[in-house]
Amino acid sequence: xxxxxxxxxxxxxxxxxxxxxxxxxxxxxxxxxxxxxxxxxxxxxxxxxxxxxxxxxxxxxxxxxxxxxxxxxxxxxxxxxxxxxxxxxxxxxxxxxxxxxxxxxxxxxxxxxxxxxxxxxxxxxxxxxxxxxxxxxxxxxxxxxxxxxxxxxxxxxxxxxxxxxxxxxxxxxxxxxxxxxxxxxxxxxxxxxxxxxxxxxxxxxxxxxxxxxxxxxxxxxxxxxxxxxxxxxxxxxxxxxxxxxxxxxxxxxxxxxxxxxxxxxxxxxxxxxxxxxx
Amino acid sequence: xxxxxxxxxxxxxxxxxxxxxxxxxxxxxxxxxxxxxxxxxxxxxxxxxxxxxxxxxxxxxxxxxxxxxxxxxxxxxxxxxxxxxxxxxxxxxxxxxxxxxxxxxxxxxxxxxxxxxxxxxxxxxxxxxxxxxxxxxxxxxxxxxxxxxxxxxxxxxxxxxxxxxxxxxxxxxxxxxxxxxxxxxxxxxxxxxxxxxxxxxxxxxxxxxxxxxxxxxxxxxxxxxxxxxxxxxxxxxxxxxxxxxxxxxxxxxxxxxxxxxxxxxxxxxxxxxxxxxxxxxxxxxxxxxxxxxxxxxxxxxxxxxxxxxxxxxxxxxxxxxxxxxxxxxxxxxxxxxxxxxxxxxxxxxxxxxxxxxxxxxxxxxxxxxxxxxxxxxxxxxxxxxxxxxxxxxxxxxxxxxxxxxxxxxxxxxxxxxxxxxxxxxxxxxxxxxxxxxxxxxxxxxxxxxxxxxxxxxxxxxxxxxxxxxxxxxxxxxxxxxxxxxxxxxxxxxxxxxxxxxxxxxxxxxxxxxxxxxxxxxxxxxxxxxxxxxxxxxxxxxxxxxxxxxxxxxxxxxxxxxxxxxxxxxxxxxx
Lengths: 278, 574
Prior knowledge:
The structure holds two protein chains of two kinds. By secondary structure, chain A is mainly β. Chain A has four helices and 19 strands. Helices cover 5% and strands 38% of the residues of chain B. Chain B has helices spanning 11-15, 137-140, 203-206, 210-215, 230-234, 302-305, and strands at 3-4, 41-49, 55-63, 67-75, 89-97, 105-107, 109-110, 116-121, 130-133, 147-150, 158-159, 166-167, 171-173, 180-189, 192-201, 267-271, 276-281, 293-298, 356-358, 368-372, 375-380, 401-406, 412-417, 426-434, 444-454, 457-469, 474-480, 485-492, 501-511, 517-526, 533-540, 551-557, 561-563, 566-569. Mean pLDDT of chain B is 82; it is low at 205-216, 218-226 and 327-337. Chains A and B meet through strand 1, strand 9, strand 11, strand 12 and strand 13 of A and strand 1, helix 1, strand 2, strand 6 and strand 8 of B.
């Protein structure tokens, strides 16, 4: 009488099959390095821009880790994952692309099986598509032109996800809606688009920025209160910013009072027959 | 006896015997009444934009010995039936010439943007012919594991107004031309720390660079014409702020008249006395506005100030012999508010005896107070560092020597001797050594005197200082009014050096006749050689207000400077 396990669990079912590799995968490379059927029991691979026939293209064994590269018909290194040989062991190998974006997951049958990769010997182990092709259902197509997923700055920094633009040091940003005319349409229809305006406005207070700890705001003279024996007058500047002092001979036809303007001030004096203005 | 027999069937082999990737709920019956063989299509993975429909189904299939052709359509739901109001969209097709290889991915050819995927065929692709069509999704829709809609990304493209160029790629390369820069940063937005792209103006790139000047579009010489910063340039013609000292013309509003500043409301008072009469000139265009001009008059005539025009006069006296005195005017000695300072030594100590000398022996320093900056004691052990010319303290250089060093590179360093209660008729002396500054630091050293709190702001200090400035190669007499320095006198020096000991002596002398004034002399000598030996004075100190009870001591302006002793005497050698 034969015995069969009719309803195995998912991991158990896949442990002894090639899955997630294709039925036609040879599971060994030209140098005889064998990928055990129980190395992985499931996978999901979704690099952005990935093409058909994704496969395990390269395994680099180092003294402390294994680096697994996934390729396809368009590129040998579409994404990669790392299996550390020390520290906390896991049965999951998270994949990422060259910009660090998530690109999928390889699920090992258990963490100790993944450690067996160390027995391959240090170096780079190359595989062809026929050696290690994955099943179609674990390879998720994600089109590369589906929209903007991230930005690269000049220093190579990559920013993705919920991206915010912030202005500083003389730059402010503004959100606007822009009307754009579609000249290709017969009726020249316009469409309303969201827009970001980058305003380079400088910074009138830049000296405070540079001299943050020593800059002191000056207090300017806004009014001059002139007090005399006959009362007081409060003077404010005219539209040109001037306050004027005059003399007059209304009280005395030969007034000795003199106002003399200099480069930096005003000399107020009386004329003396002996000493000139005092 | 039983025989164990475990069969491990691989993924595609399993699928040859089941409907997958067609969903279990689909009946797989064509419009012609034939059942779709399960071993033709064994795996698939298809994605399409969700606005085209929720499910995708196989609408047509042809397999024969020459070709393989499959067509897929989307539908709003499993139960949808085709009608003019319920559109079905063909999204992709696979057309292959035989022989088609089993268990290999074949990409679909999309009819619409953002549609993609691949199919895998099984053994049924080569040993049978089959043709059929499916008009409703319920007959042949793909299970969710094999086909799912995708949500369109929020930002599908980037462009500029009035441009046909559109960026639709997955990753956008951001390039910033100087003086703009872009960097990744972290900013708290809505209580969450977020990764952001920060865009700003780079002062370092632009300042003083002719290349950068061209890059930012500045006209020839514009930076030299008062635009001192790229921030200034882009702020435009209305971006000048007098309160920030950024006026291009260099002209700014008046802060002080004779060192007197306005009150909190910006108002300053000028009082005229004696014969003066004041009158205002009203603003003709807007009489209700405050006047902008004042007329000063004197209710006296020149004749009242002159001797009678007789030669000789009626008493036979010639002008040279005249004892005539002009009529007296009432003068008000308008004394500005005085800067305050305690008039007694600290802790009710008795007044110090003179001469007073502190050599900082054992790094002890008595009755000194740090009023600004940072100071520390340093024990010098190298003979090249020790002040070997400190004859007031010892006749021969000791093996080690404690000195006091100013440290703050951003603030004035003020260290005053608080035991004295007067700064008139005093002679102050010290030895100092300057160091080359870096990172914005300055290089100078000097003596501060009559340092007291500003009368209307106890947080500010008002003082005079004699300062040797290495950068300017000048010996300066400066007055600080609490806000800014004004230069009373400067003497050009030659070969003022760092890492050399200098002797600086400052003398303040009170002159009582004909009126009370104050004069200063000061002397700077190079100690290791005779390259500098300068004595300056007398110079009248116009802002040396009574009661001149400020404190005196050691000083450097944003500089690291060593001082080796402090000497005060009431005998004036200069």
